[in-house]
Amino acid sequence: MAVQVMLISPALNAALREARFDGDAPLDAAGVRRAGAVAAGVPAADRYLHGPSERCAGTADALGLRAGPEPAVHGWDLGRWSGRRLAAVSTAEPEAVSAWLTDPSAAPHGGESLLGLCARAGRWLEALESAEDGGDRRVLAVVEPAVVRAVIVGALALPVETFWRLDVAPLTLTALSGRSGRWNLRCGQQLSPTPDPAV
């Protein structure tokens, strides 16, 4: 049976505005307002989830979703770089940042490699597809942009380096429908106050 997986990227927070490796920074007041303004545009689903970060949980709340935390879609673990500015890390550890950007197996920060992130996201998508509960055919999850990108890479069997070429804007909807090996993708749809009946 076909599954529809809808992913919403969370609203901006101060860490993203400052180009920081996010860590677990909460959603700020501006992000709460922006999410609340588009809450009516969130499509209906059988099951609602959110990544365990404060930013994802706060976005789900601001969107008015009764979403439960899903540990399998936590954000990219960037180890000791979490919370630091990208510019500062690039200055202090240029070789490490270069390796991180060019070698999908590298994890110079001591956290998760890009390959590891994509594999984890792929396992989560497969688990949704193989779930025995046929009632959860439309799943909506608020997840970090890196997780959205990793899910797309896995679902479409793209080269892992494609991850770096995908942009996921805040409060956008990415929808996958189908099944393993045959996913259709609709990406980058802005949430608006009026729901889109085509989703």
TrEMBL record:
Protein name as it appears in the record? Histidine phosphatase family protein
Q: Which organism is it from?
A: Streptomyces sanglieri
Kindly give the Pfam families that the UniProt entry links to this protein: His_Phos_1
